[in-house]
From TrEMBL:
Lineage per the UniProt record: Bacteria, Pseudomonadati, Pseudomonadota, Betaproteobacteria, Burkholderiales
Keyword Transferase annotated: yes
Protein's name according to its UniProt entry: Corrinoid adenosyltransferase
Organism: Comamonas avium
Family label: Belongs to the Cob(I)alamin adenosyltransferase family.
Gene name of the record: cobO
Main location: cytoplasm
Domain of life: Bacteria
Job description of the protein: Required for both de novo synthesis of the corrin ring for the assimilation of exogenous corrinoids. Participates in the adenosylation of a variety of incomplete and complete corrinoids.
Subcellular location: Cytoplasm
Keyword DNA repair appears in the UniProt entry: no
Length: 208
């Protein structure tokens, strides 16, 4: 490698380091945030569970509400179950609720799903009032709002009034503008390609 390139590289790295250090210095506020993972690309729910496992790794308590249950038991939930971390009781490290009737992509029956959505929202509300939970994942919340199962004003109010140190992670496609406005961090995951569109079947460990 020639000397001139090495010097140029060292200079650029020095500049980068100074920028990062200045940004770290500026970020001094400590509080829970709202993370919104939306868009049509793959990676919303798995990213939310990545954050959940991070929190658990630090010994923190968390809550998860899944507003849509797919047809397969997912690896991320089965894994927590095997570790004995899941439950609805106060002693569980992860408070967990999945919508009972399972409003799914395949089937939707308002009369069965609306009461189940209300019960799931009650579970979410309890979590959003519990300051022992440092992370609350509301998986597929956007779907519930989009199709009128839950009312935006109640959802926004509960999230705004949560304990100061609690972080909320919301996932789902087509996030409403009011949710985007409320969130501190928004990732819009674009679908550049998806294997399913090329005929590849959904598989354990990759898609569920
Ligand atoms: P994942 O659970 O893999 O992180 P996701 O939460 O971003 O995906 P959803 O919109 O919740 O995606 O879709 C649920 C299921 O559909 C998952 O099995 C996921 O792998 C799959 N999926 C995600 N994005 C796409 C897509 N663009 N086309 C087809 N299938 C998708
Ligand atoms: Mg998802």
């Amino acid at each position: 490698m020639d000397e001139q390139f090495k010097q140029l590289h060292a200079g650029r790295m020095q500049e980068k380091k100074a920028q990062v250090l200045a940004a770290v210095e500026r970020a001094q506020t400590e509080r829970g945030i709202v993370v919104l993972l939306t868009g049509h690309g793959k990676g919303k729910t798995t990213s939310a569970f990545g954050m959940l496992y991070r929190a658990l790794g630090h010994g923190l308590r968390a809550g998860v509400v899944q507003f849509i249950k797919g047809t397969h038991a997912t690896g991320e939930i089965t894994f927590l179950h095997h570790l004995g971390l899941l439950g609805q009781g106060p002693a569980s490290q992860v408070q967990y609720h999945a919508m009972a009737t399972g409003c799914t992509w395949q089937r939707s029956d308002w009369d069965a799903d609306k009461p189940a959505a209300d019960i799931a929202w009650q579970a979410a509300q309890r979590m959003l009032c519990d300051d022992s939970l440092r992370l609350v994942v509301l998986d597929e919340l956007t779907f519930m709002l989009q199709y009128g199962y839950l009312q935006m004003e109640y959802v926004l109010q509960a999230i705004r009034n949560r304990p100061q140190g609690q972080t909320v992670v919301i996932t789902g496609r087509s996030a409403h503008a009011q949710l985007i406005a409320l969130a501190d961090t928004v990732s819009d995951i674009a679908e550049t390609k998806h294997a399913f569109k090329a005929g590849v079947k959904a598989q354990a460990g990759v898609d569920f």
